[in-house]
Amino acid sequence: MYIHTLLTPLLLLPSLSTAIDILLPLYLYPGESASAWSNIFSTISTHSSVQFQVIVNPNSGPGTTGDLTDQNLITGISKLNSFSNVKTLGYVLTGYGNRDNGLVNADVDVYASWSGDLRMDGIYFDEISNDKTQTNYDRMEVLSGYARDRINGASVVFNPGYRAPEQLFAFCDMMVEFEHPLADYQAEGILNQIPGEYMAKSAVQILDTPEGTDVAGLMAEMEQKGLGAVFFGEDGSYKVWNKGLLEKMADAAA
Q: Is residue 55 helix, strand or coil?
């Protein structure tokens, strides 16, 4: 009876949500001395409690077959890696299962060769096939395993753009379960479609976010559900940056 009395208040406490990451697709060229990224650096710096997973995408991939020589990219990536609350992810296309594994691995090799201030903390595999076939599962297991072999402690993110087969979660650290306009996200009730056991490993990338959107309210719901990461974009290119929108995301995640 005494033990029951002590435990009852604890059982009535609401469940605690976990912090949500910002999954930031940085496809914008950094410009002279990385000046085009300055607003991003500022937001990261003033929100040190927020984890940013920044996708580095020089040219639909590393944009080179060897050492990085573009000084503006060198400056920008080095600055990103100077923040303790940033993980940098190298962008790699998989072509929805149609791109040769050798070419995919070659891109991973390039990112793996960038060391020191240019190091990548992981790989962001884009255009993942969401086919429910063993062939697809085997392929992504191999590609993910190769990335982890080449980059010590690599974080692996898969992006099929829309609801992935649950089998693929075994081979990644984060899955982009939705990458479409905000109107579609709201109409489809995406958070209710993601299985609870995979919520913390799931992300959504919202496109075409209208001005005046209640980003804080949407992110509060995402955090309460336990979603792992989010991004709200102004358009679908990830090359148009709205500092106010990024600040709203960071404020809500802090």
A: strand
Mean residue pLDDT of the chain comes to 92
What is the distance between the alpha carbons of residues 192 and 199, in angstroms, rounded to a whole number? 10
What does DSSP say about strands 86-93 and 122-126: parallel, antiparallel, or unpaired?
A: parallel
228 neighbors 202 (Cβ within 8 angstroms): yes
Whether 107 and 64 have beta carbons less than 8 Å apart is answered as no
Q: Mind listing the pLDDT tens digit for each residue in 118-176?
A: 999 999 999 999 999 999 999 999 999 999 999 999 999 999 999 999 999 999 999 99
| Beta strand extents in the chain (DSSP E only) | 21-26, 52-56, 86-93, 122-126, 155-159, 174-181, 202-207, 229-232
**pLDDT category of residue 237 using cuts at 50, 70 and 90:** confident
- Assess whether pLDDT exceeds 70 at residue 114: yes
Q: Determine the 3-state secondary structure of 36 from DSSP.
A: helix
Q: Which residues pair with 180 in a beta bridge?
A: 206
Q: Flag whether pLDDT at 109 surpasses 60.
A: yes
Instruction: Name residue, tokens 């009730």.
Output: 189
Write the Ramachandran bin of 97: left for phi over 0, alpha for psi from -120 to 50, otherwise beta: left
How open is the CA angle 58-60-62, to the nearest 5 degrees? Answer: 50
Q: 155 near 53, Cβ under 8 Å?
A: yes
Question: Do the beta carbons of residue 136 and residue 102 sit within 8 Å?
Answer: no
Phi, psi of 24 (to 5 degrees): -105, 110
